[in-house]
Amino acid sequence: MDTSEIVDKVLRNAAEEEKKYKSIEVQRDVEVEIDLGNLLACDPNALDLKKYRVNKGDYLSSIARDATQLLFNQLWKLPVHRVEDAITVKLPEPTTVLPREKRVPKDRPATKWEKYAKQKGIMNKKKSTKVWSEEEEKWIPRFGYKSKNDLKKDWLLEVPANADPMEDQFSKKKKAKQERVAKNELQRLRNIARAKKRKVPGVGLTPTEKPDKTMVNKAIHLSKHSTASIGKFENKLPKEPLIKNLGKRRKFEPVMGSLKKEQDLQKNILDGLSRNRPEMNVTKAVNRQIREEQQSAAAEKREGRKGGKGKGSRKAAPKTAGRKRTKGGARGKKR
């Protein structure tokens, strides 16, 4: 083949490739609106009705292809970074507000420990879900069923030196676990109450095996102040120390106060009572009353029509006074 024939063949192949793949440059009369945050492209240009009627599917496919090409052109203008073997871009914040079926979920409120850890800069270390067991020589779960701390695996327990040798160590360990579970559940409920800004009840005096001095004083204080007089008339032991800063003082409003404060208090009570009542929809009530009146009027009208079509609808012919028909048809006088 001559050089001219080779050049013609290359140009012919290039022309065929251009026809097969369209250009990335798209020209539109009105600029296409692109929202990169939602990967959305809105084309406000009017449709060409002639091309639309000739071939509906191809025409709509070409418009969708042009809008997609413009969207990808804008994506490649964003800063690119590689994650492992993929090339990614960070999308900006969306500008188009899309409707949602449900409200946006709120963030879970932080617990007391999370707030303390954030304040002190404590970072939680993520532990593995499984640990190596030297006895079984295999990986077992850290918590839960068939874990390292499973009570069913402990067939032998060592009695501590300072413990009662006749004490059941298995029941003691089981009871300690139940107390830990109850304590965690109490902490969870208190976190929920604190997040909802409700009053968190105190736990009172928890039973312990070896209570210290402060716990004994607190028990004495709670037992004395559990009476109707709140411990006012209780006798004191000799040399009993005065315990302060325990419990809460009750606050009472003054008998003679401001009139405006009393009015606000009564108004809040009335608002609370009326808040529990269901609200009346005036429009719905009026429409219901009108509908009932129309139904009753239609029923009366229907009954009137039925009564007019009966046997008694025609007026009876007036009887001639003093006369009656005889068998032959002649009229005669009454005798």
From TrEMBL:
A Pfam family reported for this protein in Swiss-Prot or TrEMBL: RRS1
Q: Does the keyword Zinc apply?
A: no
The record ties this protein, via InterPro entries, to: Ribosom_reg
Task: Please give the residue ranges the record annotates as the region Disordered.
Answer: 288-335
Q: Where is the composition biased (Basic residues)?
A: 307-335
Compartments where found: Nucleus
- Record keywords: Nucleus, Ribosome biogenesis
Could you give a single Gene Ontology term from the biological process aspect? ribosomal large subunit biogenesis
Instruction: Please provide one cellular component term from the Gene Ontology annotations of this protein.
Output: preribosome, large subunit precursor
Where does the record place a coiled coil? none
From start to end residue, where is composition biased (Basic and acidic residues)?
A: 289-306
Q: What role is this protein assigned?
A: Involved in ribosomal large subunit assembly.
Entry similarity comment:
Belongs to the RRS1 family.
PANTHER family attached to this UniProt entry: RIBOSOME BIOGENESIS REGULATORY PROTEIN, RIBOSOME BIOGENESIS REGULATORY PROTEIN HOMOLOG
Q: What is this protein called?
A: Ribosome biogenesis regulatory protein
State the species of origin: Strongylocentrotus purpuratus
